[in-house]
Amino acid sequence: MEWGRAKTILILSFLLLNVVLGIQLWSSRADLLDLEANAIGAAEEIQRLSKSKNIQVPPDIPKDVPKLREIVVRFDDNFNPEKAVPLAAPFKFDPLISKGSFRDVLARTGIPKIESYQFDPMTSLGGTYVFHQLYGTLPMFDVQLRLFEKNGQITSYQQGYVEVQSDVQQKEQKVITAYIALRSLIENYLPSGAVITSVRLGYHGQVYNSQTLNMWPSWRVSLGNADGDVYYVHALNGAVEGPQKSKK
């Protein structure tokens, strides 16, 4: 008798678990469909807004909305981002080579911590190749390694490097979408006829005369004008900073 009751309870428990899992699966599916629909609607809205102001937007607007937090970094005194360091063995640099060969070439330069940086083609112009130090998979836009080309060879570099302070703990928040950032810029900041060449999520902060730097998740929006204007949109509260002139 006890075994029969236990079997019945066990069967009912499995049935209840299946119902709960089914509801969760349906809810997750509904969330995904809602997110996809919102993304499609947001993309269409950006197209309408940009068309009304004759503003060009790139086709590959990021759709990710990760959870991120503000960070505090400390500059490493062993690196001077304002000092050009000559290379003992200049080399030819071609950013169009395959990724594997790209890494191999950089590894042979002797530049310290070269694996911590990611190439940024948007700001690499006029014989200067710009890399940003990464935090996780995201670039820290204000922490750069810059390679300088002369007569077709990389002959020197400038390098900044930071350590992220591990004792700073802040709650992660979901960032605003790239579409929201673009909508704010198009409606309120960008002139008619502007050309947006790149939208990139990363970290940005204000550099003061201090060894530490507060950085927050930001959407970097680059324009294709003569000055290379760049806007930063705070990815947690939507505040807009810019335009800034890109360093060419």
What does this structure look like?
The chain is an alpha+beta fold and 248 residues long. 29% of the residues lie in helices and 34% in strands. Strands 2, 8, 10, 11, 12 and 13 form a 6-stranded antiparallel sheet that branches. A 5-stranded antiparallel sheet has the order 3-7-6-5-4, with no helix packed on it. A two-stranded antiparallel sheet has the order 1-9. The protein starts with a helix and ends with a strand.
Give keywords.
single chain, 3 helices, six-stranded antiparallel beta sheet, 248 residues, 34% strand, five-stranded antiparallel beta sheet, alpha+beta
What is the topological layout?
Layout: H1 2-52, E1 67-68, E2 71-75, E3 85-91, H2 99-107, E4 117-119, E5 128-135, E6 138-150, E7 153-159, E8 162-164, E9 173-174, H3 178-188, E10 196-205, E11 212-223, E12 229-234, E13 240-245
Antiparallel strand pairs: 1-9, 2-8, 2-11, 3-7, 4-5, 5-6, 6-7, 10-11, 11-12, 12-13
Helix pairs in contact: 1-3
